[in-house]
TrEMBL record:
GO terms for biological process: triglyceride catabolic process. The keyword Signal applies. Residues 39-256 form the SGNH hydrolase-type esterase domain. It comes from the Bacteria. InterPro entries: SEST-like (IPR037460), SGNH_hydro (IPR013830), SGNH_hydro_sf (IPR036514). This is SGNH/GDSL hydrolase family protein.
Length: 268
């Protein structure tokens, strides 16, 4: 790969989690209002990669095509607080986003954990330092998912339950990033891509375990994105994106509508 392309990959990875059509949905005016809805989480919930960002959201990059916006438009909640923010960690949710919750909150959605695990650094390592370094860094990320992340997720989920005790809480995961069959000019070896997918599987397993243990619904995005990964014939994820490197490795508008929104709608 050319040096400038490696630079783009690294810059994209540094913004990695930093996370449209509603065809068939009944018009909001034709439906009874849904309960008050609050959308928490990281860039996969704010809609990085889906375009049409609210200028007032600044670096949080909240998209009009993000699944929380789509769900709100289709279900007409009595109120809608969209506080998900690019780059958010579990600490960020605890220190600010939870202020949007109250006893009156009826629906909560959240994707969180990717930034805690350090996938940005992992992708940078994989892009710049070759297969051996990539596999080592992925192993470190997987160890964090197993050993440290569960307690961090518990802290967030406990706080959500305390702040919004009557809410229906939907925890959304992350897709696998790569289709492995056949050749793919994605800048990483097949072994590296397989390792990254395995780390995503670990993250899904741990997140589902902790979410369901709190009585929350878990939305597994892996089935929805099967056949739409990077290197498939119909990508719902950005690979390296130039000049807007910040959207790299994030769902496209189709990924938000066909993947995240569809899963969310099926759980509420």
């Amino acid at each position: 790969m050319k040096p400038q392309r490696w630079t783009a990959v690294a810059a994209a990875a540094a913004a990695f989690f930093g996370l449209t059509l509603t065809a068939g949905a009944a018009p909001a005016s034709a439906q009874e209002a849904a309960p008050a809805y609050v959308a928490l989480g990281d860039s996969y919930s704010s809609g990085v990669g889906a375009g049409d960002y609210d200028p007032d959201s600044g670096d949080c990059k909240r998209s009009a095509n993000a699944y929380p916006q789509l769900w709100s438009a289709a279900n007409a909640p009595s109120s809608f607080d969209f506080v998900a923010c690019s780059g958010a960690t579990t600490d960020d949710v605890l220190s600010g986003q939870l202020d949007a919750l109250s006893d009156a909150t009826g629906v909560v959605s959240i994707s969180i954990g990717g930034n805690d695990v350090g996938f940005a650094d992992t992708m940078t390592t994989c892009a710049l330092n070759g297969e051996a370094a990539c596999l080592e860094r992925v192993a470190e990320a997987r160890a964090y998912v197993t050993d440290t992340l569960p307690a961090r997720l518990d802290g967030v989920y406990d706080a959500i339950k305390a702040k919004a005790p009557s809410a229906k809480v939907v925890v959304l995961g992350y897709p696998r990033f790569y289709q492995l069959e056949g050749s793919c000019n994605a800048g990483l070896s097949e072994a590296s891509r397989a390792a990254i997918n395995s780390a995503a599987d670990d993250l899904s397993t741990v997140t589902q375990d902790r979410a369901t243990s709190h009585g929350f619904s878990y939305g597994d995005l892996r089935p929805a994105f099967t056949g739409h990964e990077i290197c498939s014939s119909d990508w719902w994820l950005h690979s390296v994106s130039v000049p807007d490197v910040g959207q790299s490795y994030h769902p496209t508008e189709e990924g938000q509508s066909g993947g995240y929104y569809t899963v969310m709608e099926g759980l509420v």
